[in-house]
Amino acid sequence: MGQVLGDVLGLAAAVAVSPLPIIAMILVLATPRGRLNGILFTVGWILGLSVLGAAVLAIVGPGGSSSSSTTGSQPATWVGVLKLVLGALLVFFGLRQWRRRPKGESDAQLPKWMASIDRLTPLKIFGLGVALAALNAKNAPLTIAAGASIASSGLPVEEQIASLAIFVVIGTLGLLAPLGVFLIGGDRAKTTLGGWRDWAARHNVAVMGVLFFVMGLKLLGDGISILTP
């Protein structure tokens, strides 16, 4: 299980520090029902990561790894192909994000949908959390890659579930930080979160570009090692 955690912790950390969901959380906390909406957003995020990861585990099933009497359980060939594809996708996203990074503070822009967060109902806030976790074209590949690593490890089902749970917890830390500040920070919370929001807005594109590029290279390396043992 230790080797699997080593594979997925980096992916979970990349999910956790993704600036866009953190900015969305800060905006959610600034809504009139910030406490309730923040909790619902976090629950939706956790559900999204869990469902996507569990879907990968279920789809892969027992055939996710191929056993060898001399080397133990090894990932199946298709897992290597999947990691190559996901790695190439992340490298592409990373290079595109880096090329689109703002050249100055005045050039930094947030997605237009963020302007409507304060008008969303609690149910839609919950759905937004699910969507940003499971349906986001940039974060979903990280979760799929983590699920593939866990499913192809040959671990018992209960250990696979535990590994996925650890991935989800680590991947949620980025949202728990602003939520914790909001819940216990008192009057200073708005100033602190405002500073975080401004920094993330300025550096969102560059940070994600570097993260995607690095994690993409890691997945490419993993895929190559599986296909060329």
Name the helicity range: over 70%
Side-by-side strand order of the widest sheet: 1-2
Low-pLDDT segments: none
Radius of gyration: 19 Å
The biggest beta sheet reads: 2 strands, antiparallel
User: In total, how many domains does the architecture comprise?
Assistant: 1
Number of strands: 2
Helix count equals 8
Query: From the helix content, strand content and strand pairing, which structural class follows?
Result: mainly alpha
* Secondary-structure element order, N to C: HHHEEHHHHH
Classify the beta-strand content into a percent band. Answer: under 5%
How far is the first residue's CA from the last residue's CA? 21 Å
Estimate the global geometry from the Cα principal axes: globular
Overall pLDDT: 84
Q: How do the strands and helices of this protein lay out in sequence?
A:
Elements (H helix, E strand, L loop, with lengths): L1 H15 L2 H11 L4 H27 L4 E4 L3 E4 L1 H23 L22 H13 L5 H12 L5 H28 L3 H40 L2
Antiparallel strand pairs: 1-2
Helix pairs in contact: 1-6, 1-7, 2-3, 2-7, 2-8, 3-5, 3-6, 3-7, 4-6, 4-8, 6-7, 7-8
